[in-house]
Amino acid sequence: MTANTESRARTGGQILVDQLAIHGVKQVFCVPGESYLAALDALHDSQIGVTVCRQEGGAAMMAEAQGKLTGVPGICFVTRGPGATNASAGVHIAMQDSTPMILFVGQIAREMRGREAFQELDYRAVFGTMAKWAVEIDEAARMPEIISRAFHVATSGRPGPVVIGLPEDMLVELADVPDARRYTVPRPAPTAADVDTVLDALAAAQRPLVIAGGSRWTEGAVRDLVALSDRLSLPVAVSFRRQMLFPNDHPNYVGDLSTGPMPALSDYVKNADTILLLGSRLSEIASQSYTLFDIPVPKQKLIHVHPDPSELGRVYQPDLGIACAAPEFLSSVLAQAPVKGPDRESLLKPLREALVKRSTPPAPRGQGVDLGAVMTYLNEALPRDSVITNGAGNYATWVHRFYKFRAFNTQAAPTSGSMGYGVPAAIGAARLDPSRRAVAFAGDGCFLMHGQEFATAVQYDLPVIIVVCDNGMFGTIRMHQEREYPSRVVATDLKNPDFAAYAKAFGGHGERVEKTEDFAPAFERAMASGKPAILHLLTDPDNLTVDRTLSQIRGQ
Q1: Predicted local distance difference test score (pLDDT) of residue 210
Q2: Contact 123, 163 (CB under 8 A)
Q3: Which string of DSSP letters, residue by residue, matches 142-164?
Q4: Residue 62 near residue 427, CB atoms below 8 Å
Q5: Is the bond preceding 532 in cis, omega lying within 30 degrees of 0?
Q6: Parts of the chain with a pLDDT under 70
Q7: d(Cα 553, Cα 420) in Å, to the nearest integer?
Q8: Residue from 230, 181, 234, 227 nearest 208 by CA
């Protein structure tokens, strides 16, 4: 889109909304507030859809989920003070997940600043270490410049969140200023010499491994990675909660580096001779508390490809660092890669055998619904393009270990480990495309952190299905508690409501599931209802982890 050279007097709110339209924004999430009424009024006259949410944290997580799934900034508006602090959880997720997102926050009038006026916050100080950039717009005339910069910052290099304060008097100020052009994302590619070095290293490697992670991926980049893996017979792993970056049913897929990863994979990483780290920072969880690679110089030959040059050498000193995103890197390498490389079947076979064994659910144990059987059913019942979301908790280990992600853009899960994420993330996904099935998993503690957003799903007729796994406790904390302080239970027990009745009270579909064999028909009824649905699963409290029961943890 070309710039509009005709100037006209507009309010700051009108200029802001015009910039959003220029930059391709189709929808925003918000909780309304008097501090940005002028921006809301400008949205009334635009073609931008508005999703009103019930709590700012939920709104920010919906925006973050859309940024994660699309690669373009998710947009959220919240009011000053408590609205901003509520939304901070979503900002933190976006930062740790490298997700493009822009949070607009109402602010007090400019002449009141510095007096601790009603709901006043210094947004630069509050969000300065949590966001990629935090700024306040002091003049309506600077709106096109700053909004343009916000989109560029949020999407360039390592993507992340931008927080913009909007003084309420600035939003009604008139300014005669031309619009900006639509933002573009710089897309540097590797040099020919770098491509040759990479291909030579992969051809010569005896124990190579590709680790895919991070953001700025595309569907085409995933196809290119599959093609490169096929040609060079490369084993491919993914980093924490990034299973959608490589088809889990592909013979070269060897697992994910998550909490409690497959021991065979961890051993392979430590003894690999060449690692192609593609798009990932390989932070604490994926690196197994920074034990897989020596710091600062790994013993493995490390080729680190990351779109932000400041990440190259920040923790791990690579043998070759390439500052570009995965799509540009893979298309350049694939164009020069041989049609057929070394045969590494003997390397791949034991890794695949270990993965198949590990990703096969164990026999049901105890009482209540068996989550392994639930995942086996969903692998067959759900379309390949279904979006699976979750928050934080031990229940999520069943999702990530036994559900097979087979397509790009089908996973929204916080690498920051934020509870309450699954429900708003599924709603954000459904607002993108209601025809795609969106299924959220939540624990009983996790659900009630943002369960009120079920009202948002009902308001917009979004047929999300929320699976609440109820074991009557904060399960992950209980696991640590019983390991460190056996039988000294405090602050981890929960007394829960009837979540199926909760769904019905909001106008959705709800069912209580107490037996494993009852899950499939209940799920099918939930899909057939066409309504937002909650399936309340009663699970055995002793089945606290996939591998060990609560009794075993306490005993050890």
Answers
A1: 98
A2: yes
A3: GHHHHHHHHHHHHHSSS--EEEE
A4: yes
A5: no
A6: 1-7
A7: 26
A8: 234
Other Cβ atoms within 10 Å of 118 Cβ, number: 10
- Beta carbons within 10 angstroms of residue 2's beta carbon: 8
Structure tokens at 215: 């953001």
Burial, 162: exposed, middle or buried (Cβ in 10 Å; 0-12, 13-18, 19+)?
buried
Residue 143 structural domain: 9-176
| pLDDT at residue 467 in the model | 98
Best CA proximity match to 546, nearest among 433, 320, 395: 395
- Label each residue of 83-106 as H, E or C: HHHHHHHHHHHHHHCCCCEEEEEE
CATH number at residue 425: 3.40.50.970
Count of CB atoms within 10 A of residue 280's CB?
Answer: 26
pLDDT given for residue 493 in this prediction: 86
**Residue type for position 96:** Q
d(CA 225, CA 525): 38
C-alpha span between 109 and 395 (Å, rounded)? 46
* Contact (CB, 8 A) for 135 and 124: yes
201 and 237 housed in the same domain: yes
Instruction: Please count the structural domains in the chain.
Output: 3
Quote the strand ranges of 447-493, DSSP E: 465-470
Choosing from 130, 151, 176, the residue where a domain stops is 176
Q: What is the pTM of this model?
A: 0.95
Among 18, 75, 11, CA closest to 38: 11
Nearest to 353 by CA among 251, 267, 258: 251
Could you read off the pLDDT of 329-353 as tens digits, one per residue? 999 999 999 999 899 999 999 999 9
> What single letter denotes the amino acid at residue 320?
L
pLDDT score recorded for residue 1: 44
